[in-house]
Fold this protein.
Amino acid sequence: DIQMTQSPSSLSASVGDRVTITCRASQSISSYLNWYQQKPGKAPKLLIYAASSLQSGVPSRFSGSGSGTDFTLTISSLQPEDFATYYCQQSYSTPPERITFGPGTKVDIK
Amino acid sequence: EVQLVESGGGLVQPGGSLRLSCAASGFTFSSYEMNWVRQAPGKGLEWVSYISSSGSTIYYADSVKGRFTISRDNAKNSLYLQMNSLRAEDTAVYYCARVRWGISAYYFDYWGQGTLVTVSS
């Protein structure tokens, strides 16, 4: 199975900060990398798909980059509603019986 | 508006069974592949099972293979997960999620609100 790691596992930031989260795959996954945001008690929400495509309705302060094994999610100016846990997901392994998620990065208020 | 609404969760004893349902609306359910994803309390996301739009192709995570059965009824716009021989480690919130495909893209664009399954004596 393709293993996903994320760093950091948690971070504290202030409103207005630029935040970058890194996701690394154990082997090349081309651009089959998605990012989700999850708030406590809520379902995950798709932010970015195919490494850098912004899902409809998601604010433009969110952006994704990378290909191969190394990927980043950037929040250009952190807003109060952005405090959440962020997960990367590889979908290179299709058929999808080997889809895996990263362990998550929790973003909280400094 | 796309909506996915799970139901059927609850408290069950180890070795017991439970059937989860996911009611879909706001889109042509029969055209979309679907998945179940779970999240143990305080833990990350784990993919559980996949079903193709017609129901002809099915996959399971190794952790549930032989115990869980995914199915769908396109006439009723519903997805199901039959869970047998439940274990404590199956305790989790279970989400249904819709699949979208694109160029270098395979992702879950809509998720239900989740239903909690607790396996305990």
